[in-house]
Amino acid sequence: QAAHGYVVNKLKVGNGAGNEELRISAGNANTGSVVFSKNNGESGEITFDANENIVVQNNTNNDDIIFKVTDNNTLTEVFRVDGANSSVVIGDTSNSVARLLIDIDDGDNKDGIKIQQADAGERALWIDSEGAGIYMTAKDGIQVVVDEDNGYGLLTSRNNATVNAPLVKIRDQLGDESALKVIQESTDTSAYAIEI
């Protein structure tokens, strides 16, 4: 018997014949925890804290919290919380460049992010930035397909009264191709490729 309970090598709850549970019951102002520790003092824990939050915590300096599943009989990492950089990474083992890094390998046959927004009154993605809203290095840039009636391919508006820059700026650093090309495929003669 230890100071606060019993020391056992293995603990099994139930016999596989019904619903079972392992319950840790704490006082209203206290916490209930499952703590994992080693003889060297390193530890991790899952805690139901005094404010009724569930906390998953790795107490080892700079070490990660890793989530895995068995995908098609292969143990596969889904994502990890990078302890050395206080960030989240999917598809890699560390992330020192952003709060969230998604790394898709060639041949994965998956999009990096897909957002399906069924609420027509809300945004699928909202970025509020004091700097650049989107910075992109890509082969094809941005492709917008409008599949709703009366929709816009690109809507740019200004809501700042102090104006010392154009609303749209095109910078072509290569110089041997057109900076802007508009292809009008409509057979409606009243439809303009560009209307001002």
Please tell me about this protein's structure.
With 196 residues, the chain is mainly β. The protein has no helices and seven strands. It has strands spanning 32-37, 43-48, 54-58, 65-71, 74-82, 87-90, 100-102. The strands form two sheets. Strands 4-5-6-7 form a four-stranded mixed β-sheet, with no helix packed on it. It has a three-stranded antiparallel β-sheet with strand order 1-2-3, with no helix packed on it. The chain is elongated. The chain starts with 31 loop residues before the first strand and ends in a 94-residue tail after the last strand. The relative contact order is 0.05. The model has no long low-confidence stretch (mean pLDDT 90).
Blueprint (SSEs and pairs):
Layout: E1 32-37, E2 43-48, E3 54-58, E4 65-71, E5 74-82, E6 87-90, E7 100-102
Parallel strand pairs: 6-7
Antiparallel strand pairs: 1-2, 2-3, 4-5, 5-6
In short:
With 196 residues, this protein is an all-beta fold. It is 0% helix and 20% strand.
Helix count, DSSP H or I runs of 4 or more residues: 0
Measured between the Cα atoms of the first and last residue, the distance is 84 Å
**How much of the sequence is in beta strands?**
15-25%
Query: In terms of structural class, how would the helical and strand content be classed?
Result: mainly beta
Order of helices and strands: EEEEEEE
Strand order of the largest sheet: 4-5-6-7
Helical coverage, percent range: under 10%
Mean pLDDT, as a whole number?
Answer: 90
How large, in whole angstroms, is the Cα Rg? Answer: 27 Å
Task: Describe the sheet with the most strands.
Answer: 4 strands, mixed
Runs in which pLDDT lies below 50 for 5 or more consecutive residues are none
Say how many strands there are. Answer: 7
Net shape: elongated
